[in-house]
Every structure is written in structure tokens, then in C-alpha cells.
Amino acid sequence: MKIIPRIKEELTEAEKIKETAHQYRQGLWLGYHKRKTDEHRIKDFHNYMLKMADEWETKYLKKIGHEPG
Hints:
The chain has 69 residues and is mainly α. 65% of the residues lie in helices and 0% in strands. It has a domain at 14-34 and 41-63.
């Protein structure tokens, strides 16, 4: 069985928000692993940015009337 991804236009508004937040988190993880040897409190900054991504996703999902989760 072959899985065919849906075209982006077919995504609902909630799915677009979740996809954007997911891509943002992936970028944060990639950046964290490239720079985690830095001594500039990268772990604290990374955790803060992940929290901000969660808040952004929740805010926009609530704005369109969709429960986060």
C-alpha cells in the first residue's frame, strides 16, 4: 500500500497551525543539537523557545475555535 501525502491546500486551518509549530520545533531541536556544546545557557534558551512554540500553537488553535492537543 502506498501512502500519498495530502496536498497542502487540503489541510484544515488547525492542521496548518500544527504543521507550522511542528516544523518550528524540529528547527529548534536541530539548532540545539548543533550548538549544545556552547557554554551560553543554550539548554535554558532551548527550553524557553519550545515553551514559546507551544504557546503560539495553543493561541492560534484557540483563535480558530479548535482545542489544542
